[in-house]
Amino acid sequence: MSVAETALKYVGKTEKPGNMGFTDADFEKRMLAVGFVKSHAWCCYFAELVFKEALPEKFAELDKLFSASCVQTFNNFSTANYKISLIPTVGTLAIWQSVRDGRPLITGHAGIVVTAISPTQFSSVEGNTTEGGSREGFIVGENFHTVRTNVLTGKKLLGFITL
């Protein structure tokens, strides 16, 4: 199963309020296996789950590169010389960083590109999101995005990582 297909199979999975686990016991077991900690934001844990399931041969390497922090995950992949682009490609890992008043924050968001509509538009499957594409939500959902790298407040795309 491809990375995109693996991500899409989880659409609709929901959390227990407050990031305290998941309503589906099997999904919760899988998330705990990749390191999910109750009360943590879980979008990056979800991305890790998808890539480990779709690319089991890279399990050990991915274990070292993914972090609970999306920004740290991006830095880890960057330091490991993975290909990073600003053009969406199906199956890549999308990482955003939160920005407020032009200042980067430590928070971010992650998703898996499932449709590359154009060089500047794509859809991704994300954990801990909402129908509006929030970085703090309650569900695994598919959201549509426009590539935005010049952001004063909101989510700034750091890049798409090819695994």
Strand and helix layout:
Layout: H1 3-8, H2 25-33, H3 43-54, H4 59-65, H5 70-79, E1 83-85, E2 93-100, E3 103-118, E4 121-129, E5 139-146, E6 154-162
Antiparallel strand pairs: 1-6, 2-3, 2-6, 3-4, 4-5
List keywords for this structure.
single chain, 163 residues, alpha+beta, 6 strands
Content-based structural category: alpha+beta
- Assembly type: single chain
Order of neighbouring strands in the sheet with most strands: 1-6-2-3-4-5
Largest sheet, if any? 6 strands, antiparallel
How large is the count of helical segments? 5
Radius of gyration: 14 Å
Give the H and E element order: HHHHHEEEEEE
Provide the CATH superfamily: endopeptidase domain like (from Nostoc punctiforme)
Number of domains: 1
CATH topology: endopeptidase fold (from Nostoc punctiforme)
| Amount of helix | 25-40%
CATH class: Alpha Beta
The number of distinct β-strands equals 6
Mean of residue pLDDT? Answer: 96
What are the low-pLDDT stretches, counting only 5+ consecutive residues below 50? none
| Global shape | globular
Q: Strand portion, in percent?
A: 25-35%
Instruction: State the CATH architecture.
Output: Alpha-Beta Complex
Q: Span from first to last CA?
A: 15 Å
